[in-house]
Design goal:
This protein is mostly beta strands. The chain has six domains: about 300 residues, no CATH class; about 80 residues, Immunoglobulins (Immunoglobulin-like); about 80 residues, Immunoglobulins (Immunoglobulin-like), CATH 2.60.40; about 80 residues, Immunoglobulin-like (Sandwich), CATH 2.60.40.10; about 80 residues, Immunoglobulin-like (Sandwich), CATH 2.60.40.10; about 90 residues, Immunoglobulin-like. Helix content is about 0%, strand content about 45%. The protein has one helix and 54 strands. The strands form 15 sheets. Strands 1, 2, 3, 4, 6, 7, 8, 10, 13, 16 and 17 form an eleven-stranded mixed β-sheet that branches. Strands 32-39-38-35-36 form a five-stranded mixed β-sheet, with no helix packed on it. A five-stranded mixed β-sheet has the order 41-47-46-43-44, with no helix packed on it. A hairpin with a 4-residue loop joins strand 53 and strand 54.
Amino acid sequence: MPNRTMWLRALWAVILIVGGTFPTWAAHLVGGDLTYTCTGNNMYQLKLVVYRDCNSTGAQLDQTASIGIYDGVSGQLLYNLQVNKGATIPLPANTGNPCLQAPPNICTEYANYITIQSLPPRASGYVISYQRCCRNATITNLNNPDDWGMTLTTRIPPNDTCNSSPQWNSTPPIVLCSQEYLNVPVTCTDPDGDSLYYSLCDLYHGGGKGQGGGFNTPQPSPPAPPPYAVIPYKAPNTTTNPIPGNPPLSMNPTTGHLQGKITVLGQYVMAMCVEEWRDGVLLNTIRRDYQFNVTSCQAAIWSDIISEVDDPSQLCIGTTVPFQEDSYNATFFHWDFGDPNLTTDTSNLPNPVYTFNDTGVYVVTLIANPGWPCADTDQVVFHIYPPINAGIQWSGGVCADEQNFAFTPTGFWYPDATIEWTFGQPGDANLASYSGEFPPPITFSQPGAYPVSLYIQSKACEETVFDTIRVYQRPKIDAQLSGIVGCEPYTHLFDPQASASTEMFFLWDFGDGDTSHAAMPSHTYTQAGLYDVKLWMWTDEGCIDTIFVSYPEAVLVNPRPSSTFTVTPPVTSIYTPIVTVDAGGFLFNEQYFFDMGDSTLYTQTDFFAHQYSDTGNFEVQRIAVNQYGCWDTLGVWVRINPVLNIWAPTAFTPNGDGKNEFFRPFVTGFTTYHLVIANRWGQVVYQSDDALEEWNGLLQNQGPECPQDVYSWHLFIVDFGDSPVEYTGTVLLYR
């Protein structure tokens, strides 16, 4: 019986929304009662309980309640007590019957107003009263119900020496169940041991909708004195039959139980009185004014076993089974595990574990709250069989050219079991599916990963397991290594053009003593020759294989031209710019030429002289190609130095006429230059490290003008032979 709680809530929603019995209540007064307890020394504790509909949008419970105490004969007001409200307490949503459940959204709350008052013995006794208006407008058994208020009243007997009124044993239920036989206790206990008599009694009116603070206002303070007006019931309801029923609702005068079977739905108000008798004398009467919600009730207890459908992990787990209950509102249990040969196959645990003597099908019974009138029973069929524990075993070659897989199921099953196989998707294998224990050999169409499933159904047990079969391509090498030609030193990138479904490993032997484990190695042959190449390739998983390929005379490395030459002298000056080139030892079958670095070429000449026309650095290159087409280049550097020369003018005229305006020494054949010019007193008027910069007659070439005079100059240079040289002289500055 899964989801019964959700079903119950949904049912209440339908009753409350569709049935229209309980609209949203706007008023708030539900009822109340008034009692007292003598604490000694003429002190009495007064206890007022006021009930309120907490779903209502009407007024909240009053913060202060007005309790009036009157003379028991004259009705004279003696005290008007202002009693503070206690905590607001929600009333449990009970029906008075543990087997029935109230709707979930009916809500009643209450508060206690408690005070202690000294009340000395009085010949006429006391009347204690409380009044409040107004009642819910949705009450069914009153005409214009929201116009009526409530009076709660009790008496202290004349010349009382310390009597306590009867005390209510419990709060009232908030729901009475229609179409159910009621036996709801509404009982009291008397602290003095007096005899109690229970009855349905009149409703008393009190308060009203008026204003100004009088007896006709919602909260009279003080409340009105006795006597109190009786509220008439709406026909056919009466004081002794306030709610229609068959049999009629009644109150057992001795036990205080409400009995009968209510046949209507709605909200009904009534009063229940308890008379206190001692030695044949009526001492006092207390009353409970209360509004009941009459509705359809549902069973409050359900038994529920978690079945194999609810929890498939319970199915086919062997003879030892853990059972679980999912009952509602149950507090104790009784299990019967359905073994026809045993009477001891029972348990009172909520979630027992039971071991069956044999496999088979058993009807398991769970009773929730056994012995209660609303005990509920659930029965579920359990299939007690060992687990199949299915598995797949296979053998065969995983290489694409081998295969022929043989599949075998493992596990436990009965002889009439159903066994079904599937092999990949349709078209993947020579057989897409097979019914039976041992399928014929299976071959897949190409390398790849293929799902294989095994389904076994045995008795009520079934299992499906999966595996993956991987078919690998056969490793192969497609490289054709031959006709590889180069000139020494020759570097070649070797590509095995190998393929496999798993990682490949390689060993290359290049034929010159070197090896490599790289997949695509780059190897350099440093010597001319003809070389054999060998290749090993292997895999260590999937389709495991080793391949060896030999490539005889795969690589031919030809020699390059090799000859030397000399250039004499390597360094000379522009005065003697002739060098001699000697290239003895060349081979007759080589083609070669010399590039002198100044755009001059010499072809097939092994000894010659060459004259340079300018200074500078020149690379002499010999470029040769042999009969194999192999090239070689050799270069030698030659330096032609300029010759050191110096000339300096003896005078200059910086007068702005554009003629002979500047002075500098003219020098060739140097690497370092520093010029200093000073006047006759040794003061430096100009200096520079730039051989092309000239003195313009101004102090440091920026001004002021230097006077007409004779100036001395000093020049420091380093020639191309790294030798320092100094020159001095004079110059006339004439304006």
